[in-house]
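Q: Fold this one first, please.
A: Sequence and structure below.
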Amino acid sequence: MDPKGQRVKLNDGHFIPVLGFGSAENKEVRKSEALEVTKFAIEVGFRHIDCAHMYQNEEFVGQAIRSKIADGTVKREDIFYTSKLWCTFLRPELVRPALEKSLKNLQLDYVDLYIIHLPLALKPGEELLPKDENGKLIVDSVDLCHTWEALEKCKDAGLTKPIGVSNFNHKQLEKILNKPGLKYKPVCNQVECHPYLNQRKLLDFCKSHDIVLVAYAALGSRRVKEWVNLNHPVLLEDPVLCAIAKKHKQTPALVALRYQIQRGVVVLAKSYNKKRIKENIQVMSGSVGRGSPKEYPS
């Protein structure tokens, strides 16, 4: 980590800010709102922006970044932008065109990190979630090692700086790490991670291979029936989390974010609420109590 504790060094020598702004939107949020909230996130201090082709809002997120560059708030090199390779583009010949499509939507020359969104190949085409007549996803047969080689070529071409993965387990990571002729290791593995799903074993594995764990859903799983049991408790209402927050005169959200940073995890804070966006950035200020590691789940 750099002296200010704001960034973590990746295994290819680049640095990633430890706190990122997640730009995935809920169904009830219009994609165009990504423009306004991303601009606001940059204005209050976020420099790490996480997005993806799957979110279908890169055009607006890119517009927000360019507008903040144009008005002098930031320079391009101040922004760390992550995009993701969607499942319908995992065939090696589709990887670079997919990245170029994202760059065209963003109107940027490069991304700061490009990662495989999921280790699951789906039938190529315009549909993001291709399904058969029975409503089942149509999968594709792709060797992820070949996909990785295509990502390495994108890095060599300067279209992206670091390259990494998302939603990989340790066996899937090992397949890439043990690939003959590996040129670049994944710099990160972005996974769902929060106090109810702390990913301790995966975190230990990643640390042992100099791979940074990036946490999404850091404030709790999405509250939709397809994702979680809605009878399960809401993370930010957890009694232990609330007690720690009260003790340190902070909010449960800030405690959950600080928990990840203290573990050496890069954390994404997703919100389309300006009040919460402004609150979340406070985790990087000296006013947020660091607490004892014993207070937090291991």
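Q: Good. Now the second chain.
A: Here it is, same layout.
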Amino acid sequence: MSKELPQPQQSEEVDLGQLFKLIGNAFDRFFKFIGRIFNALFLGFVWLVFFVKKHALKIVIATVIGFGLGMAKEQVSAPIYKSTAIVKQNYKTGENLYNLIDYYNKLIGERDFTSLSSSLGLENEEKLESIIGFEVESVATKNDEMVRFDKYKKSLDSVLASTITFEDYIESAKTSENPLQRIILKAKSKNVFKDVIPNIIESINRTPYFEAEKRKDSLELTRQENAINEALSKSEALQGVYQEVLKQQVGTDASSQTTIRIDNTEDKSVTKEFELYTNDVRLRRELVEIQRKKEDKSKIIELVSSQENTGTVDTSSRLLGYDINKKIKYAILLGLLTFVLLLTREFVRFLDRFKDRI
């Protein structure tokens, strides 16, 4: 029986060798599959290069024709005017502003000029019908976003703040929350802008909710201002007491000096008047900040800069989220259309080769 013991070990060695062979074959097939994919991609790229080279003249001609069509359309079509205005949100009016602009655009799409006249406060029907649409977008640089991100992290728990990255913040942040927003108005008339932009701002300023918030903020700031003024008055009175004591100390002998100690430390008693002075400076600085806040909060939303009086001719058009010249847009579109049609024709010819095999 002892002579039969090594046989299971030989079987295990054979099985292990077969396992390694299977693993090696699997890796070999995997790398060959990856190689075929890269080879197919390379062949496809080479075919595309030769395809473009073969039809380059047709694509260029189509692009030039598209550019010419865009130029002709600019000459024939009535000009479209555009005006922009930058507003500053002192309250969180972003959602309200974006919803209001969307509401105006829907009224224009439905050609409901009666409701639009009521909302914008315009009675001139000709001016209303000339409005093409509104746009609103955030005015914020990456540096502005980083400053807001830093403030946001400071408002969170340190453990939670360490898990949030700048990319996560940008992805979740709403563009409507940025203080500065740009309102864009496009119209067929050049003289409609001076009546529209101020009415949009006034419409938000009249919102009952934000009017109530403004009153509450104003009362809170007034209370803070009164509390600081009261503290300054008491501080001035206390400084007067210190001055009287110091005057009395000057006329007495060193052995009979009287010292006022608030914190029971004699070596610091002489600095109390200076501490009160520095505290007054801090409180007065807070008063200046409160006054600035009251001025900022006096308006719910305010106009920063605008071209509201007259509009300028708009020669741009939006393509894939970018504003480009209309002539260039038509050139790109016609060139791409030609390329797609030629590619489709080549694909149909390729399929015709297999028609007889089916």
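Q: Anything worth noting on the second one?
A: Confidence is low (pLDDT under 50) at residues 253-260, 262-269.
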